[in-house]
Design a protein that fits this description.
Length: 362
């Protein structure tokens, strides 16, 4: 009885608490008055997005609960939540850090925020990625070359803008350690050195087993978990789903936080991949082709310091794919170079990243 009485008191405190969404910057994702399942990596802005949405409603109509609160007893929560929502006429219930053993009451709108998506959920699923470059610019005061340099330093995690420069690395490290298991974190340390490369799960197993005791099954499960939760991305080879996949990190700031290894070309390629992913494109790689988008008959090449001579040689190497797949456009994303290449088979253009990323969202 004491346990249940305490839960009533706790629910009342959640109900009366004042939410804060900080200096909220609009995201591409907008919430409507329907039920959602929102997933994404740690610090991607999930909680802030939901709090900002709830703050636009009448205070007495919503209830926000962080299910990670150590004061919550889930048995007692399941016993009391439905009655509490009914008694207080709750219209919108938001459950942050939700787990499937928490029973959902019958309310008009449920918003669950989870690390791992529940595939059988009846609610609309939103995957919230870190900030795309267009979203990042909303935090900037100047839209010149310094903005892009700032993007390379901070990456796409919104929280980075409120953290002092000397604390950012440790903040990312601590956030990942809190959100991931020990094995998952060790995998992230490993992949940070191998991003934008073709890497098999077996290769990861061979590398990781020299550092810790681990079985193949545990390794494969951990890789799957990181992909499912969005910390790692695997890119398939076009029409070869069994071929070794390319690995990309969830955010470029993660690479800088987890390794001192520098390889600007791969970091730049990872950045381009994340922009394409944020845009919802179907992406593949091919031999000598960084990104192929068959539905758009488009090839995107990463060439940070490219010039027309390098571009022409790259086009020559992939003429077969261009002709057989009827590719209509090749975009070469650079740091600053721009120009058009007159080629008999395809329109080819060099575009600086800052312009290219914004054009992706037109």
């Amino acid at each position: 009885m004491v346990q249940y009485a305490n839960m009533d008191i706790l629910l009342e405190s959640f109900y009366k608490q004042d939410l804060h969404s900080g200096h909220f910057i609009d995201r591409k994702v907008q919430l409507d008055d329907i039920s959602y399942q929102i997933t994404g990596i740690t610090q991607s802005g999930k909680s802030t997005l939901v709090k900002h949405y709830l703050l636009g409603k009448k205070k007495s109509s919503y209830l926000y609960i962080d299910c990670d609160d150590i004061r919550i007893d889930k048995v007692a929560l399941n016993e009391h939540l439905a009655a509490f929502c009914k008694e207080n006429k709750i219209v919108s219930l938001a459950l942050d850090n939700y787990e499937s053993d928490i029973k959902l009451p019958d309310v008009t709108q449920v918003i669950i925020i989870t690390a791992r998506p529940f595939q059988d959920s009846p609610h609309k699923m939103i995957r919230l990625y870190p900030l795309a470059y267009e979203e990042f610019l909303a935090y900037e005061h100047k839209f010149d070359s310094t903005a892009l340099n700032h993007f390379f330093q901070l990456g796409g995690l919104p929280a980075m803008h409120a953290i002092s420069s000397e604390e950012r690395i440790r903040y990312i490290q601590s956030s990942l350690q809190h959100a991931l298991s020990d094995i998952e974190f060790d995998l992230m340390l490993l992949v940070a050195k191998m991003a934008a490369q073709k890497v098999s799960s077996f290769t990861l197993y061979e590398r990781l087993k020299t550092q810790r005791k681990i079985s193949k099954d545990m390794l494969y499960q951990s890789v799957h978990s990181l992909v499912e939760k969005g910390y790692l991305h695997q890119l398939e080879k076009f029409k070869h789903p069994r071929a070794t996949k390319k690995l990309y990190l969830c955010d470029i700031a993660v690479k800088n936080a987890l390794t001192t290894q520098k390889h600007f070309g791969r970091l730049f390629e990872n950045l381009i991949y994340l922009e394409l992913l944020n845009h919802g494109a179907d992406i593949y790689y091919e031999e000598k082709v960084d990104f192929y988008l068959p539905s758009q008959r488009r090839i995107v090449l990463s060439m940070p310091f490219g010039n027309e001579e390098k571009l022409f040689k790259s086009i020559e190497a992939i003429e077969g794919l261009i002709i057989t797949q009827n590719v209509s456009k090749v975009e070469v994303v650079t740091m600053s170079s721009e120009g058009l290449l007159n080629h008999p088979f395809v329109k080819a253009e060099m575009i600086p990243f800052a312009l290219w990323a914004l054009s992706e969202h037109d």
